[in-house]
Amino acid sequence: MVQPLKSADQRRVCFWPINMRDAAEVESAVAAFARSGIGSLVVTGSSLAQFHRDLIVAFAARHKLPTVYYSRYFVTGGGLISYGPDFVDQFRRAAGYVDRILKGEKPADLPVQVPTKYELAINLQTAKALGVTVPATLLARADEVIE
Questions:
Q1: Using CA of residue 101, residue 104, residue 109, residue 111, what is the dihedral sign?
Q2: Rama region for 78: left / alpha / beta (φ>0; ψ in -120 to 50; rest)
Q3: Which of 61, 100, 117, 133 has the fewest CB atoms within 10 Å of its CB?
Q4: Which of 98, 100, 96, 42 is nearest to 74 (CA)?
Q5: Do 78 and 126 meet the contact criterion of CB atoms below 8 Å apart?
Q6: What span, in angstroms and rounded, lies between the C-alpha atoms of 88 and 96?
Q7: Per-residue pLDDT tens digits for 100-138
C-alpha cells in the first residue's frame, strides 16, 4: 500500500514497503511500483535486498525505473546510483574497537559509532540505458563512476 507523506516543502514522498522473500514477490512489487507512475525508486538496506540484489537491479532496468541504492555493490551490478556508508571504512573502525576490548575495556563502555565516510557511485552505462542525464557536478563529486 502506498502511504504518501508531505514534507515541509510539500513534495510528495511515498513509502512503499515490499516483501522480498522470493523472485516472484520482488518482480510483482517492482512492476506494481512502476505502474504507479511515481517515477523513481529508492532501495534501502536490508539483508533481503542484498540477497536479491541482481533481481532488483534487473527488474528496475526492465521497468525503466531510475533507482538509488544504499550500497555501491548494486551499482557495480548494473544499478544506476548509490549513496551510502563506506562499509570498508566501518570494518577498519571496528578493528579499533576489537583492539580496545582486547586491552581490557568493557564493550558496554565504548561509545556507539555512526558512519563517518559515505560513498557515491554512478553507473553511466545504466544512466544511458534509462535515458537519464547525470549532471557534471554530480559526476565530479562521485567516488566511483562506471563507464
A1: negative
A2: left
A3: 133
A4: 42
A5: yes
A6: 13
A7: 999 999 999 999 989 999 999 999 999 999 999 999 999
Task: Determine phi and psi for 15, rounding to 5 degrees.
Answer: -100, 130
HSE (side-chain half, CA atoms, 13 Å) at 76: 7
Reported as a single tens digit per residue, the pLDDT across 53-89 is 999 999 999 999 999 999 999 999 999 999 999 999 9
**In the structure grid, which three cell numbers stand for residue 132, read together?**
537519464
CA angle 107, 84, 136 (to 5 degrees): 150
Q: Say how far residue 97 (Cα) sits from the centre of its chain.
A: 26
DSSP state of 111: P
Residue 49 burial (CB count, 10 A): 19
